[in-house]
Design goal:
Number of strands: 32
CATH topology: Methylamine Dehydrogenase, Chain H
Number of helices: 4
CATH superfamily: YVTN repeat-like/Quinoprotein amine dehydrogenase
Distance between the termini: 50 Å
Helix content: under 10%
Radius of gyration: 20 Å
Low-confidence stretches: 1-17
Structural class: mainly beta
Oligomer: single chain
Strand content: 35-45%
Mean pLDDT: 93
CATH architecture: 7 Propeller
Length: 396
């Protein structure tokens, strides 16, 4: 018994110390985006800068934030080469009453990036679809495309750029919708809206829409849209016949935690296979979009959440695992080596006033994206004062 107890203590100590492992690769850096009081510098103010949407457009990181209740978010641009924030726009000056941009950015034609908002008060109107463009200097232009569903925010979004179509899920009801960018025609579907019975089950576990609605959608190479819906189910939407299919395989789960199943992130491999992250148990799975079969790849770390997934130029799938009250860990996956947990990213940040540089630790990372060439992997924090963390992937 004493031997078993000692072994358990050693295991707990090992897992505890892993929380405090820090990863500082070569060529990694942090960009200061936020400060509490910086009137002389371009910085985002406190409580309005949780980075919940990211994209990379050439030299620029495009970001969208979420704010505390009663406050408005920002859209911002930071330069990779200059390693600094270059511009931002207060959403209150563009579309008043919005609070969150958590849909991510979907790249369309003519270098336009599309996102959706969630209002501070849904009783006063719905979330808005926006088209964002950056010029050569990183200056931001935002076009309001209107509200697809009255009194509903936009929780997740993806695009079929070839057909100029957006697909999304509303908040808090979970209505699936399509939006034609050219004609502005919107169509809504209630096929994946939770039933009263499902809502009762979710309510018993004290789960709200943020805990069970699909946080990310993905388009397959075949033009199908994949996502999740309660309880712990995966769906496929076929735009050709406007129909839904519930997949026979569900989201991988830990026994007894089925109600927490929720797709939080997606990444598409070069071979067309889709890789998803389960928020509830922090598992990564592989989905074949043709056979629609799911393979559970396991947990990259002993923590919940997989808030971001992206392939880099080294062929590895990178992701972030964990969340409050624990720290976020960066991990990678490949078919030969499996998962590699790097620990908590800690990158050098150089900015006015800290020219000597400091080590910035990304304890609460909320999103992750890779540049289109796969060279850069960019992470955004989701705190009251959030910064960007960037590292360079190896050239395969």
């Amino acid at each position: 018994m004493k031997i078993v107890f000692a072994a358990l203590l050693a295991l707990c100590a090992l897992q505890s110390s892993a929380q405090y492992d820090f990863w500082t690769p070569k060529e990694a850096f942090a960009i200061e985006v936020s400060l509490e009081n910086a009137p002389s510098m371009k910085r985002l103010p406190i409580y309005r800068n949780a980075i919940t949407a990211l994209a990379v457009s050439g030299d620029f990181i495009l970001g969208g934030t979420s704010a505390e209740h009663g406050l408005a978010p920002f859209v911002f641009a930071a330069s990779l080469s200059k390693r600094e924030l270059v511009s931002f726009k207060d959403m209150n000056e563009v579309i008043p009453g919005q609070r969150r941009i958590r849909s991510g950015f979907s790249k369309g034609n003519n270098n336009a990036y599309y996102a959706g908002t969630i209002p501070d008060d849904l009783s006063r109107g719905g979330g808005r679809l926006v088209a964002v463009k950056l010029n050569a200097r990183g200056e931001i232009d935002i076009q309001d495309l209107g509200s697809p569903i009255p009194n509903e925010g936009i929780f997740s979004l993806t695009i079929d750029a070839k057909k100029n179509m957006l697909y999304g899920i509303s908040y808090p009801t979970g209505i699936f919708f399509s939006y034609n960018i050219a004609t502005k025609a919107t169509r809504t579907f209630r096929d994946i809206v939770p039933t009263p019975k499902e809502l009762h089950t979710l309510d018993e576990y004290a789960l709200g829409p943020d805990d069970y609605l699909c946080k990310a959608l993905v388009e397959s190479a075949q033009g199908l849209i994949f996502g999740s819906f309660p309880v712990n189910k995966l769906f496929c939407f076929d735009p050709k016949n406007q129909s839904f299919q519930v997949l026979s395989d569900s989201i991988p789960e830990v026994w007894g935690r089925k109600s927490l199943g929720q797709v939080e992130s997606w990444a598409k491999a070069k071979d067309g296979k889709l890789y998803g992250g389960n928020a509830g148990d922090g598992q990564v799975f592989e989905l074949n979009p043709i056979t629609k079969k799911v393979k559970n790849l396991g947990k990259p770390a002993m923590m919940p959440h997989v808030k971001g997934l992206a392939f880099a130029r080294d062929g590895r799938l990178y992701g972030i695992s964990g969340g409050a009250p624990g720290y976020t860990h960066l991990f990678s996956y490949d078919h030969n080596k499996g998962f590699l947990d790097y620990g908590n990213p800690e990158f050098d940040m150089v900015a006015p006033g800290i020219e000597q540089g400091i080590r910035w630790r990304g304890f609460r990372i909320a999103t992750l994206i890779a540049s289109e060439d796969g060279k850069y992997v960019v992470m955004g924090e989701g705190e009251s004062l959030s910064q960007l963390l960037v590292f360079v992937a190896e050239d395969k």
